[in-house]
Amino acid sequence: MSLHGVSGHPEPPNPTDSSSPSTPKMKISPKLNRWSMGRALRSGVKLDRPIHRIYNTHCRQASEPKQKEDDKKTSTIDVETTAGKSIYLISDGTGWTAEHSVNAALGQFEDFSVNRGSSVNTHLFSWVEDEDKLAEIIKQAAKEEAMCFYTLANPSMAKSAKQACDQWGVLSVDILGPIIEGIASHLGVSPSGLTRGAPGRVKTLNDAYFKRIEAIEFTIKQDDGTLPENLSKADIVLVGVSRTGKTPLSTYIAQKGYKVANVPFVMGVEPPRTLFEVEPRKVFALKIQLVVLQAIRRTRVKTLGVDTEAENNYSGIDLVRKELDFASRIYAENPGWAVIDVTNKAIEETAAVIMRLYHDDGRDSSTSVPRISKRY
Amino acid sequence: MSLHGVSGHPEPPNPTDSSSPSTPKMKISPKLNRWSMGRALRSGVKLDRPIHRIYNTHCRQASEPKQKEDDKKTSTIDVETTAGKSIYLISDGTGWTAEHSVNAALGQFEDFSVNRGSSVNTHLFSWVEDEDKLAEIIKQAAKEEAMCFYTLANPSMAKSAKQACDQWGVLSVDILGPIIEGIASHLGVSPSGLTRGAPGRVKTLNDAYFKRIEAIEFTIKQDDGTLPENLSKADIVLVGVSRTGKTPLSTYIAQKGYKVANVPFVMGVEPPRTLFEVEPRKVFALKIQLVVLQAIRRTRVKTLGVDTEAENNYSGIDLVRKELDFASRIYAENPGWAVIDVTNKAIEETAAVIMRLYHDDGRDSSTSVPRISKRY
């Protein structure tokens, strides 16, 4: 969903907008060398800056009462402080590393939109493998007053990105470069410089690949207590009442190559016998605060649109409490199971807690802090 | 699986090993202030460095023929070059950002283990939220001659990590710091400095959370062509013959909040009518090279342990070819479907290609390069 070009809303006349007929249209050919664009910009070709962006932001809010042309023009400063801030993510591969890292960092600015009434918009550009495209994107970033993060395996592309950003006054951060340099120095070897899709890169159909596929397929087949006879084959077994997040957690962990089974605990229904034959250190019991679970179940009920009686049986406070008590009793009878509180936790967080406990098997006496180790 | 403390193998005598009775044992109390440890190290307390690590590496290779004590001592240099290199990942949150970024960077060193007969071992330490634990881990990194990557939201922890690594001669890279600084400068606001589990952090049970859960649950229910009547509700529909990776791809994309359905194409079986009623731009048709598919199916057959006739029907070259031709014909009849080659591609790569096409709806005319935009 791009800020730009959301059509169907007439654009107000905009003297600095390059697409307006009143100013000469700037040619943005993908073939145009980035240096000539840089020169053009520095020599005074006007960039369509804030106002362009502000109008676009207005266009997105279709429900907002229509302002008069004059109001818009006079309220430029107000509007500017409430407009969205753009962050460009540029990658010559999938772009997931840039997205993941910037997402994590944005967690440090959660109050931004609340306190400023503003928003942050990320724009991910993946598979950017030639200099012309790179230059075009960074030019556009300058126009939108965006900042750029990039993950470019090809060192010459990374250098170009840095230079272009510097020349056009775009704040930029190289995410991958310092990590690659660190590893190169540590291993004493040079990086390949090959992008993800490059022919020279090692192919991915190795044992780890097949193991991961198998884990995902196993996990899907095991979902929601199906095939209890296979519980012994799972690496990890999750138990918990309905809406504690067993399914999303299972698939998340499965992506990391673990076979996960999950068993729902339902009030008054005895869990399958095979669950108690599983090695206790593999079983993770999910618990959650009563009121939070009730709220989640109410949301669920709304989505499903079920009748009132069914709703009460599912999200009525007394019944939710009884079901949680029922689960707690079974947890208490199995002290070898780790009990994890999932209240207000994101899937990634609970997964990290489980992974840490799963790998903390007490064999590592070198530090008192558990570690998850992998070999490459 | 840590290199250290793999018990059950008698350790050879080691003059520089601190656990050996011949040298005074170094006290590693979690309470011991990291600065006093630093001072102790600098003032000449010997660290149990390479030899310790090499012996442990030997211990792990149980199948390796036993060397005599003397051989080991004289072959120190050889052994050292073939020993594993350790990378520590330290986080005060889940650690997934560190793992993801370093994993991506390691893709630049794929030849390392092949050409050097060596391996890289990563060790992830998550939820490291106090200075004592941090100091203990970095001290251990110095012992193992590891390098450290860290993602520490708390600025005072990040500073301590840097100082401790510098003092103990551990190469270190701050992954999150430069990204947070960049965003802070761009938005003109200070980061919260709160770790993921901190009470002040915004809770995660928002609309996006529920949307994601719903997407994952939808995707699992739709897997493998079940419920064709629901295809119209999917954001994305994947089609392809068996073993083109539809299931892992579906769950991977679902984690990003998209409802994915997949429909297997089986030789001679007409796909469900509802598939052809789905908006073509939502349908992604997977293709794969014949020989690669055959190899994957052979691996699959081995795992399942099915009989020879079934094997021939599934992985025999003629039948695989016919099935691929059957799928290709249907693809050709539906020119609105994007055809994606998954040959030798990792799940993440194919997902990135699909995401890019899915979001490239031609509405964004600001650049010729498609973008995936998100609002925070």
TrEMBL record, chains A, B:
GO molecular function term, any single one: ATP binding
UniProt protein name: Uncharacterized protein
Annotated Basic and acidic residues bias: 61-75
Parts forming coiled coils: none
Keyword Nucleotide-binding applies: yes
One Pfam family from the record: Kinase-PPPase
Keyword terms: Kinase, Nucleotide-binding, Serine/threonine-protein kinase, Transferase
Record region (Disordered): 1-34, 57-76
Entry superkingdom: Eukaryota
